[in-house]
């Protein structure tokens, strides 16, 4: 990322949160879904959404100004990306992820980022606290499921599991990755370990996928709950970035113990470049965790590979999964 040189670039960063909130508000009101069928006027959208025309017009002006919708005379249409990703019912829809997880949970928590940085406090809810309450767990897990399906299919397609029969998906949330991997590997059985309130939500998604007989659900805490042994595969997706340094080492040690000899560890997570130059998306994701816990850290693929070696793993491959955001590291436990 180049160094900025202009005041307007500073302003773009400083005011960027307003555009984020405009997006979240729009996802709650629903214009993207109503525009999916074709152009609509402000009056028509006011009728569709139940929002008075005057405030709705101000929102539409903002959405148009940042490129989320397109003004055509007195009507509006969705921008191509919004048509594909934000209209409810679209094949690649994940607007609920933005609305629920980012808009309702992470955005408010960022008010505590300063306290997390200075060590004087953190968000009133840690992730463990957040996910212990059924309503919040449902919101978080539904959002994660919407946001994880695409990455899950890519991961399943790219990661050959060979003759693997058992997999432990630690902090697996809705089970989106286990669903994708079991669908692609008919002989694979998986177990998803997560907080009890999350597991209650995951059961619905797994049953809907017709995989209730092949994906077990384990209630517990990734750090303190015992893990089953003799696993062919252990999957850690978006887990290590949510932990502090001490807990990361605890989890990696548990992964090594849980795996059978020659077993495969799959780590999928945010990772910055080895020279710490970016990417911005991954770096900012690490930063937001400090609002929830002051001991959060950021790491690169190289640094994480070093930790894996320290715990006895042999890192075999690193690959970008979500461009500019996440990577996967495949690592093996030594055979006897």
For this entry, give a set of tags.
globular, Arc Repressor Mutant, subunit A, 10 strands, seven-stranded mixed beta sheet, Rossmann fold, 336 residues, single chain, 2 domains, alpha/beta
Question: Can you give a write-up of this model?
Answer:
The protein has about 325 residues and is of the alpha/beta class. The protein has two domains: about 5-90, Winged helix-like DNA-binding domain superfamily/Winged helix DNA-binding domain (Arc Repressor Mutant, subunit A), CATH 1.10.10.10; about 105-335, Rossmann fold (3-Layer(aba) Sandwich). It is built from 15 helices and ten strands. Helix 13 links the parallel strand 7 (about 230-235) and strand 8. Helix 4 (about 40-50) crosses helix 5 (about 55-65) and helix 10 crosses helix 12 (about 195-210).
Secondary-structure map:
Layout: H1 7-14, H2 16-29, H3 31-35, E1 40-41, H4 42-49, H5 53-65, E2 69-72, E3 75-78, H6 80-85, H7 95-109, H8 113-118, H9 127-130, H10 134-158, E4 166-170, H11 176-184, E5 189-194, H12 196-208, E6 215-219, E7 231-237, H13 245-258, E8 259-270, H14 280-289, H15 301-310, E9 313-322, E10 326-333
Parallel strand pairs: 4-5, 4-7, 5-6, 7-8
Antiparallel strand pairs: 1-3, 2-3, 8-10, 9-10
Average pLDDT? 93
Shape: globular
Order of helices and strands: HHHEHHEEHHHHHEHEHEEHEHHEE
Class inferred from helices and paired strands: alpha/beta
In the CATH hierarchy, the architecture of the largest domain is 3-Layer(aba) Sandwich
Helix content: 40-55%
Supply the CATH class of the largest domain.
Alpha Beta
Strand order of the largest sheet: 6-5-4-7-8-10-9
Give the number of DSSP strands.
Answer: 10
End-to-end Cα distance, whole Å, is 45 Å
Strand content bin: 15-25%
The CATH topology of the largest domain is given as Rossmann fold
Helical stretch count? 15
The major sheet is characterized as: 7 strands, mixed
User: What is the CA-based Rg, rounded?
Assistant: 21 Å
- Write down the domain tally: 2
Q: Which blocks of ≥5 consecutive residues have pLDDT under 50?
A: none
What name goes with the CATH superfamily of the largest domain? Vaccinia Virus protein VP39
């Amino acid at each position: 990322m180049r160094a900025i040189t202009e005041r307007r670039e500073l302003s773009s960063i400083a005011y960027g949160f307003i555009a984020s909130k405009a997006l979240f508000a729009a996802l709650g009101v629903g214009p993207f879904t109503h525009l999916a069928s074709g152009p609509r006027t402000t009056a028509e959208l006011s009728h569709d959404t139940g929002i008075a025309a005057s405030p709705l017009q101000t929102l539409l002006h903002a959405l148009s100004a940042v490129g989320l919708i397109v003004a055509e005379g007195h009507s509006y249409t969705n921008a191509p990306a919004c048509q594909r990703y934000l209209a409810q019912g679209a094949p690649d829809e994940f607007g609920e992820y933005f609305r629920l997880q980012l808009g309702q949970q992470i955005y408010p928590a960022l008010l505590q980022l300063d306290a997390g940085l200075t060590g004087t406090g953190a968000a009133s809810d840690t992730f463990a606290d957040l996910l212990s309450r059924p309503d919040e767990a449902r919101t978080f897990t539904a959002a994660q499921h919407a946001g994880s399906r695409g990455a899950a299919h890519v991961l399943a397609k790219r990661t050959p599991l060979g003759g693997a029969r058992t997999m432990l998906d630690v902090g697996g949330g809705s089970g989106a990755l286990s669903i994708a991997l079991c669908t692609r590997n008919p002989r694979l059985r998986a177990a998803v370990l997560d907080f009890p309130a999350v597991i209650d939500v995951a059961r619905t998604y797994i049953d809907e996928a017709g995989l209730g007989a092949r994906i077990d659900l384990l209630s517990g805490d990734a750090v303190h709950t015992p893990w089953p042994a003799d696993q062919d595969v252990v999957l850690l997706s978006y887990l290590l970035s949510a932990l502090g340094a001490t807990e990361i080492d605890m989890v990696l040690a548990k992964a090594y113990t849980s795996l059978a000899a020659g077993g495969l560890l799959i780590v999928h997570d945010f990772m910055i470049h080895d020279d710490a130059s970016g990417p911005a998306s991954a770096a900012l994701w690490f930063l937001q965790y400090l609002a929830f816990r002051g001991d959060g850290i950021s790491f690169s693929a190289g640094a994480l590979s070093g930790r894996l070696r320290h715990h006895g793993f042999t890192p075999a491959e690193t690959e970008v999964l979500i461009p500019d955001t996440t990577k996967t590291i495949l690592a093996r436990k030594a055979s006897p």
